[in-house]
Amino acid sequence: MRCEAQPRSEARRTDVYVERAPEAATKQIAKRESPKVKGKSIVGMNLIETIDLKKTYSTGKNIETPALRGISLSIADKDFVVLAGPSGSGKSTLLHLMGALDTATQGAILFEGRDITNIDIHKLTTLRLHKIGFVFQAYNLISTLTALENVEYTMLLQGINRRTRRKKSIDTLQRVGLDDLIHRFPQEMSGGQQQRVAVARAIAAEPRVVMADEPTANLDSKTAESLLELMQELNMEKGITFIFSTHDPMIMNKAKRLIHLKDGKITPAA
User: Fold this and answer.
1) Is residue 176 classed as helix, strand or coil in its secondary structure?
2) Distances from the Cα of 218 to the Cαs of 52, 106, 120, 221, 257, in angstroms?
3) What is the residue extent of each domain of the chain?
4) How far apart are the first and last CA of the chain?
5) Which of 38, 147, 256, 268 is close enough to 80 for a disulfide, judged by CB 3.0 to 4.6 Å?
6) What span, in angstroms and rounded, lies between the C-alpha atoms of 196 and 203?
7) For the domain 17-267, what is the CATH code?
């Protein structure tokens, strides 16, 4: 590995993002019981919950474009969920907000029953590092690292020892069909191969939830089917929650739950 820098001690903490929910969200949450499990506050069996979530983008002088218009939903632990809708429906925006990659204009987001809406960037980074895996539509691989090193990188930051993270990375790359390309750099791989490296990176550390934005967009149908079967196995065997943003009917057909969005709102299925 080229960069074996020791991760900051903060990255080893898995429970530092606790903040008090804003008053409006607190009133809604108070209507339900919040049992304690091993010292952690939860809301029912929900892993993620959004309350009246709104997102507006400023696109010019006095020009505002609403992307989300009051989304309230819950994602159960160990669920396999698809956010579906046409382009511009807000599904990718919602995915990014739930994954703490962006901030809401209004509303609240709860992760494991705790509000993450307005916490500082360092706590959000710790949350993402230890709890959330991402599959980005644009891959977001590090160009100076090989496929193996890209998959290892999150575990390096988590402080997992070299032997363990290397074994898990190789095993995961084998499962996505890239065992013969582990020493290739991103620019030496096709778009579909880079997509599979991105999937391997997201699942190798076995996070609580994997959020995938159009994960099969650059894959042939056979490879896409194989990856989805792997994700279903991890969902059933490891209890990893999966949330997809997609147009792909294949993913929609495999979902335990399908959430339709249109114009920034949840709508009934067509």
Assistant:
1) coil
2) 33, 34, 35, 10, 24
3) 17-267
4) 50
5) 256
6) 11
7) 3.40.50.300
